[in-house]
Amino acid sequence: MTTIAPEPALHRPKRALVAAGEVALAVLLGLAAAWCWNRGVLRLSYPVPDHPPLRATRYLGNWIGTSIALGTAAGALLIDAVRQTVLAVRARASAPAGAPAGVPAGAPAGAPGPEEPAETDV
């Protein structure tokens, strides 16, 4: 007797928990990115006699680069969180047996499927 393994289901409500975790991690990464950015920008002021102070801004590339990398990772996590949420909420019924490919489940019998090439007489 052969048992058929069930197909992996896309609709899994546990994905919503994964999405919530990803959003929380993205927020933490965003805060870390802001912290790194602030450490990477130094504002300096040098006193000059009889003139207003000379002001300069110094950018530290290692902190700025880390900030950009953290922000990119946070963005990727947010995109995946949206995907996980959609998969957790949306359920799609499988097509009935014998239905042509591309016809959605619940479509009336005889509904046109995906366009097929026209037959030509040779």
Write the SSE topology.
Layout: H1 14-40, E1 41-46, E2 54-59, H2 61-89
Antiparallel strand pairs: 1-2
Helix pairs in contact: 1-2
Describe this structure in words.
With 122 residues, the protein is mainly alpha-helical. The two termini are 48 Å apart. It has helices at residues 14-40, 61-89, and strands at 41-46, 54-59. The model has no long low-confidence stretch (mean pLDDT 82). It is built from 2 helices and 2 strands, in the order H-E-E-H. Strand 1 and strand 2 form a beta hairpin. Helix 1 packs antiparallel against helix 2 (61-89). 46% of the residues lie in helices and 10% in strands.
Give a short overview.
Helix content is about 45%, strand content about 10%.
Helix and strand run: HEEH
Report how far apart the termini are.
Answer: 48 Å
What is the averaged pLDDT score?
A: 82
Fraction of residues in helix: 40-55%
Q: Report the principal-axis shape.
A: elongated
Continuous helix count: 2
Main sheet record: 2 strands, antiparallel
**Alpha carbon gyration radius:** 28 Å
List keywords for this structure.
122 residues; mainly alpha; two-stranded antiparallel ribbon; 2 helices; 46% helix; 10% strand; elongated
